[in-house]
Each structure stands twice: as C-alpha cells, then as structure tokens.
Amino acid sequence: MTEQTSALLMDRNELTEFLAVVYPQFAGQITEVTLEHTWLRQPIDISHLRPGGTVSGPTMMALADVALYVAILSRIGPEALTVTTDFTCHFLNKPVANAALLAKATLLKLGKRLVIGEVELYSEGQDMPVAHVVGTYSVPPRR
Fold it and tell me: 12-138 belongs to which homologous superfamily?
C-alpha cells in the first residue's frame, strides 16, 4: 500500500460515484471531504423513525458506518472490500425526527491493514451530538 497519510486519494465527487456503484442503497450525500474529516448528510423520513418519533438506531449506525468507510476510502483509494471489524455506538441524545442526520467522521489511526476512526452524529441544526461511534476497519492487502 502506498503512503496515505498526507493526501486525499479520492475527492467528494469520486467517492460519490464510487458509492453509487458499490453501495447504491446509500441515500445520503457526501458533503465534505478533507484530510481531517468527512461529513455526510442523511435526509430523514418516516422510514427512518421508530415508535416514539425518533430516528432509529440502525439508521444512525448505518450512516456512521458509511461515513467511516468514505473517510477511509478518501485516504486509501477505491478499495471496495474494506470492511468493518469492530463497531461501538453510544447513543447520547434523542435525534430530531424531522431533521437530517449529519455525520462527521475522523480517522484516528490509518494503518496498512487496520484503520480506526470515530464518528459524531448530529441532528441538522443542533449543536449536541446524538451519538458517538468508534469503528475499526480491515483493509485488504494490495495485490
């Protein structure tokens, strides 16, 4: 694997096109990609809500997982088989049911085979995070 610590290997447009092919079920948008973090936005509709009028845990976890995947790919390039090996989600506050969900992903360690990152999830327009995620991803060896 080449050195990925100092440059983006995929920009927002390239990542959006890549996700459309390898993960077409993602209905959100990549809104920002930098060396420091990535931001994704997931519109929320009734299909994302659970009883009690809150965004479901699976919706929040899926967005966090994609956000970390995008952050990793931005640094290593188009490796579709980069997979989650560990994922811990702490639900902190009730998300707003009629607001989009925002995910800010940051990489903590970018290794040759393992990457560790964290995600803060927010309801759009709110300052307090609704969840905090830490995940580890396995990067396939280069051939």
Answer: Hotdog Thioesterase (3.10.129.10)
